[in-house]
Design brief:
Strand content: 15-25%
Bound molecules: nicotinamide-adenine-dinucleotide, zinc ion
Distance between the termini: 10 Å
CATH topology of the largest domain: Quinone Oxidoreductase, Chain A, domain 1
Helix content: 25-40%
CATH superfamily of the largest domain: Medium-chain alcohol dehydrogenases, catalytic domain
Structural class: alpha/beta
CATH class of the largest domain: Alpha Beta
Radius of gyration: 20 Å
Length: about 400
């Protein structure tokens, strides 16, 4: 079958790889009909994620049709149309039972490697390095889905792929980011990053009752999308000083809730397009990353900082003094996608939101390498790219 594979920094290839087969009786095989490229894929693309191997199949935002099920799969049948969450979760461990699916204890076969770095291992993820399971991803014609009774959500309505695909990751991720921000009525919420995750954090902040939303980025189309689709106020961080502007906008109190939807590769850190030397430094750290530091500085005293942005290695020299003295609450994590599938599907079915608004580019799987480049460079107005095998 055809798949997009990783071959090192900025080297994604279209290759023929073996079609996946049922390995465990709880597996299903899904024939992919749509699969998106995520900002998280860019960490791999730019070579920041350790433990990638040449030929790894990329992708963790897929959907399609079930074509085979293992003997112990009860919830799915051949022919079902499903969206597959990027988090692989067993459904039976202590963490899954607490609805903390991205922290599943059983889904990372390479847990030992992850534990060496983190103390304990989070869940395995599709197409996201050997440290997080070494699972082949969904930017391919077919995908093996482990624990098939726990992850995939069935789509019975006639909603298009484009309308439901983002249940796999970025809609729940934006929603959990807004929930983690503990938004209350009349709150002002500042969101750093107006990429796909930022856009859904902004939408979700609106749904959760935020009064004012201030969106921060430097890319005009992305700021425009935040204004148009969520009536956000915007700050271009290349044009204005973010701290000064936020203080001016909030009568010097600062935003009540701050969301970092940027992560490791923030502009202003010297990390984007970095040399090997800088990358190594990112893992060891001095005073980066800029967005976290800025958010801590800007957030109002007693406010909340929610971090959906992915940080890698030790790029986390967080200013703990200000954090403590300003009594900020910090919440973060990979998204517990399974927790949000039914309630967010319901919002789509009810017409409360149509997630397809973020899509700017659609192409065939074969055009994947080109789209990776476009999305990475944020060229050609690219905000979200969807591939169809
Ligand atoms: P993206 O790369 O498309 O968007 C990032 C945006 O941040 C860009 O628009 C960029 O211009 C902006 N940005 C860069 N530097 C900035 C700065 N200093 N201040 C303000 N904005 C800045 O990526 P995305 O798909 O939107 O993903 C965003 C982050 O969320 C990534 O780190 C991704 O890995 C992470 N993510 C996390 C989860 C999770 O489960 N927690 C899931 C999906 C994605
Ligand atoms: Zn993703």
């Amino acid at each position: 079958m055809t798949a997009l594979t990783w071959h090192g920094e900025q080297d994604v290839r279209v290759e023929e790889v073996p079609k996946p087969e049922i390995v465990n009786p709880t597996d299903a095989i899904v024939e992919i009909t749509a699969t998106a490229i995520c900002g998280s894929d860019l960490h791999l693309y730019n070579g920041y994620m350790p433990s990638m191997r040449e030929g790894d199949v990329l992708g963790h935002e897929p959907m399609g049709e079930v074509v085979e099920v293992g003997e112990e799969v009860d919830r799915l049948e051949v022919g079902d149309r499903v969206v597959v969450p990027f988090t692989i979760s067993c459904g039976g461990c202590w963490f899954c039972e607490e609805d903390l699916y991205s922290l599943c204890d059983n889904s990372n076969p390479n847990a030992e490697l992850a534990s060496k770095i983190m103390g304990q291992s989070p869940a395995g993820l599709f197409g996201f390095s050997h440290m997080l399971g070494g699972y082949a991803g969904g930017q391919a014609e077919y995908l093996r889905v482990p624990y098939a009774d726990v992850g995939p959500v069935k789509i019975d309505s006639d909603l298009s792929d484009e309308q439901v695909l983002f249940l796999s990751d970025i809609f729940p991720t934006g929603y959990m980011a807004a929930e983690n921000a503990e938004i209350e009525e009349n709150d002002t919420v500042a969101v750093w990053g107006c990429g796909p995750v930022g856009q859904f954090a902004i939408q979700s902040a609106r749904m959760l009752g935020a009064d004012r939303i201030i969106a921060i980025d430097r890319i005009p189309e992305r700021l425009e999308m935040a204004r148009e689709h969520a009536d956000a106020e915007t700050i271009d961080f290349e044009e204005e000083d973010v701290y000064d502007r936020l203080m001016e906008m909030t009568g010097s109190r600062g935003p009540d809730r701050c969301i970092d939807a940027v992560g490791t590769e923030a502009h202003g850190t010297g990390v984007v397009g970095a040399t090997d030397e800088v990358k190594q430094d990112v893992m060891l750290q001095d005073d980066r990353p800029v967005v976290l530091r800025q958010a801590i500085r800007c957030c109002r005293k007693g406010g909340t900082l929610s971090i959906p942005g992915v940080y890698l290695g030790r790029s986390d020299n967080v200013p703990t003094g200000p954090l403590m003295n300003k009594a900020l609450t910090v919440k973060t994590g990979q998204t517990h996608v399974q927790r949000y599938l039914d309630p967010l599907l319901e919002k789509i079915e009810d017409g409360e939101i149509d997630p397809s608004f973020v899509i700017t580019h659609e192409a065939s799987l074969e055009d994947g390498p080109e789209l990776y480049e476009t999305f990475n460079e944020k060229e050609d107005g690219c905000i979200k790219a969807v591939l169809t095998p």
